[in-house]
Amino acid sequence: MDAMQTPFDRHAVRLHRDRAAATTDDVADILRDAADRLLDRLDDTTRTFTRALDVGGRGIITPLLRDRGIETFATDLSPAMAARSGALAVAADEEFLPFAPGRFDLIVANLSLHWVNDLPGALIQLRMALEPDGMFLASLPALGTLAELRTALTEAELALTGGASPRVSPFPDLRDCASLLQRAGFALPVADAEDITLAYANPLALLRDLRAAGETNAVALRSRRPPPRALLPMALGELPAHEGRHPITLRLAMLTGWSPAPSQPQPARRGSATVNLNDVFRDD
User: Fold this and answer.
1) What pLDDT band is residue 87 in, cutting at 50, 70 and 90?
2) Quick one: which of 53, 98, 175, 262 is 20 to 30 A from 113 by CA?
């Protein structure tokens, strides 16, 4: 497969998450905010869950699910990160999941699928690991996330070298996320956005937070050469500022889908309508 088919360096992703296992607590408040927003969707259903899979939750999701009385199993690409869950856990590649069909009634993937090369394939495997009428919840950084940093880095590198290497991951458009769920066979797919704005007095703290979370550059086409020495100072100096702080956007796509089951609402059969449109639009 070429770089267009494998946009991410999965080896680098694992190394970044291995390293971040020791520093994730530094960004726990941000991860917890995203997790709470995602798990709020559990309160919108009357379904009772008993066996959950936490995919890449960085030690944040599993305790929250256990607090809800849900037995939870965890997995992560990084063995060190998987161990942070404090639960039964296994290190596994999201693109080659080892779970039996119908093993779980809930799967939660919080900020963990955006470095996957074959996202439709991973979603299919996750759907197959759900029992009928099982629920899938995921959050993904969507288009607009880190837009301020992406623009500043690109413009600074163009000014310095006349070209630009990809330094921020590409993110999906929100409109594409529900269709991804549908393509993977999920029923009742929903994608909506949650915006989190972080404000940094020192923009270097943004880079430290990305590193602490294991979110440094793993784009396959990234430059392996050291960046120009002036790049980061120039780019960070160009970040927008408001009242002495630099606002940074995290735009999260919150995905909800269900494993198909006969009991779920079904679309009406074409031609089965019983209302005459002439009656609906009758002129008085």
Assistant:
1) confident
2) 262
pTM for the predicted model, two decimal places: 0.89
- Per-residue pLDDT at 279 exceeds 80: no
Q: Which domain holds residue 54?
A: 10-261
The total of structural domains in the chain comes to: 1
**Adjacency order of strands within the sheet including 246-258:** 89-91, 71-76, 51-55, 104-110, 130-141, 246-258, 187-200
CATH number where 152 lies: 3.40.50.150
Strand duo 246-258 + 130-141: pairing? antiparallel
Instruction: Find, among 179, 187, 181, 182, the residue nearest to 262 by Cα.
Output: 187
Which of 138, 149, 141 shows the shortest CA–CA distance to 61?
138
The C-alpha angle 194, 196, 198, rounded to 5 degrees, equals 170
Is residue 245 in a domain?
yes
Indicate whether 249 belongs to any domain.
Answer: yes
Rounded CA separation 7/84 (Å): 27
